[in-house]
């Protein structure tokens, strides 16, 4: 799905059964490395199964900018290597886009070149830490400048590097690979020792290209070769991409399907081990080897997952899969604890925070730790969660939306193409449909803050439908009065709520008009009797449930503006834009006093203030749908603002959050 914008919102819907066979795109880590190593080898390499994602294509294009001839063919790409010393100076900055892997690996390559170059990235990548590669490369003799240990990275020419023995403080394949790639051009052996073993794709592929590689426990050493020899590379399916479908299948009530040709490299396959420890039914079969990489088909069957304490020794080998493991933990029975994963805070986002914030919003009890999280399994509730532009977080939340009947929507999906360009198509092949929910704007808050006026203006400006939930309760009260049900029992009130025939219209003056059973009743709803009866029926849980479905039925194309007190917390929890208006009780009392005076009603302002304060106390502390802002609501204090200013602020938020052109 092309041209996804940050504000675009999606949700998934699963079929009753998940079955069949599917393939996931080529491994991202291997795809990056294939272009770099093939480019500096001698001879012509072929690369099949290459992941044509935005990240990997950025690395491919950078190698072309360095003078490597790369052409597409039927099965992938043909790379005419230029040898270890054949790269040429680029004519412009080298743009890695969002590819952190690409930038860190290429830094090792460019640190050894006899020409100047600069690596740049998008806004997200430009905030990610690069000190971890700058320091060891500088120790080797590279001349790298960076303003804040982040991109852009500027490389000065070098006449040669010195081999080092580096003890990495973190188990990071990107750090290790940057050093080893630079070590190809060093004057002697280069070794990297890690606290735990990270993925070993670079070492495996270097061996295939003819480099002498030695491993001694947690230390890997290379000797600078005279040349690298071109290879035929067949990139297997990415286990990180397969992980999303593993969790989807394990947690789906009726799933039995096969993921074909997936890399099960032991330094990457911890996701399988962790899910099996949680009770997941995953079977590997048809195991073989492709270019030194073990591959297999995986059979995934519905399972009852349980929470576990994830062994820290498995963390480095599953570091990219933890966002989807957070979803598995959220829907497992019991508690899952993750430690030793502080690396997650330095990915495309702070993945610990993004995932915990999203799960909390969806009703899951979880706590952040500096290096992980504690997640208590439970049931998901509806809401809109934000992937914050992190492709793995966005896809994880989307899988959560496919595993519940609750209305879960996800924004911030715009970087999914960086790692999984056919994500939505693979879902479709499995029978999972992708929906783009109708937009809803909820406006909640106490009386006297300007909700009604703002909602009428928003509905008119956008051409959307309007829901005045306060009027719904008053309309129900009027229906009860008309049907002589004031003294009836609650069951008859519930029946009246279920049958309520109501609609709202905004007139030419921007005022909301209410019609009950086709009759214009706006004025009658303002009576004291209606207000009194409405206050009696509103706390009845069965009445609120009946009216909940009635209110949700107002959502129709092209969109809805919902005015009330629990629109964002109860009725439309998955609204992409939630506003909560507030103002001090004294200001609201003054506003109400002016309204009543203009209507010829004589009332003391201190009595109004007392009533407002008492109602606020009741509303905020009631057991059913208390008046509080939703966790993801934007609070606007209207006390010192004109209604025009409030409308302008709201329309600007519509433009930002919903990507709707609202004019200047």
Task: Describe the protein's architecture and organization.
This protein is α/β, with parallel strands linked by helices. It folds into three domains: 11-25 and 237-431, Alpha-beta prism (UDP-n-acetylglucosamine1-carboxyvinyl-transferase, Chain); 28-234, Enolpyruvate transferase domain (UDP-n-acetylglucosamine1-carboxyvinyl-transferase, Chain, Alpha-beta prism), CATH 3.65.10; 440-658, Rossmann fold. Helix content is 35%, strand content 22%. A five-stranded parallel beta sheet has the order 25-29-24-30-31. A four-stranded mixed beta sheet has the order 2-15-17-16. The chain has a four-stranded mixed beta sheet with strand order 4-5-3-14, with helices on one face. Strand 19 (365-369) and strand 20 (372-376) form a beta hairpin. Helix 2 (54-65) packs parallel to helix 3 (100-110). It is elongated, with a radius of gyration of 30 Å. The model has no long low-confidence stretch (mean pLDDT 93).
For the terminal residues, how far apart are their CA atoms?
30 Å
Radius of gyration: 30 Å
The CATH top-level class label of the largest domain: Alpha Beta
Helix/strand class: alpha/beta
How are the secondary structure elements laid out?
Blueprint: E1 11-13, E2 18-23, H1 28-39, E3 42-48, H2 54-65, E4 69-72, E5 76-82, E6 94-95, H3 100-110, E7 117-120, H4 131-139, E8 144-145, E9 153-155, E10 165-167, H5 173-183, E11 190-193, H6 201-208, E12 212-216, E13 219-223, E14 232-234, H7 239-251, E15 255-263, H8 270-277, E16 281-290, E17 293-301, H9 322-330, E18 335-338, H10 351-361, E19 365-369, E20 372-376, E21 383-386, H11 391-401, E22 408-411, H12 423-429, E23 433-435, E24 440-444, H13 451-462, E25 465-468, H14 469-482, H15 490-498, E26 502-506, E27 512-516, E28 519-520, H16 528-537, H17 541-552, E29 560-564, H18 567-571, E30 577-582, H19 585-598, H20 605-621, E31 634-637, H21 643-658
Parallel strand pairs: 2-15, 3-14, 6-7, 10-11, 21-22, 24-29, 24-30, 25-29, 30-31
Antiparallel strand pairs: 1-23, 3-5, 4-5, 7-9, 8-9, 11-13, 12-13, 15-17, 16-17, 18-20, 19-20, 26-27, 27-28
Helix pairs in contact: 1-2, 1-3, 1-6, 2-3, 3-5, 4-5, 7-9, 7-11, 9-10, 9-11, 13-21, 14-16, 15-17, 19-20
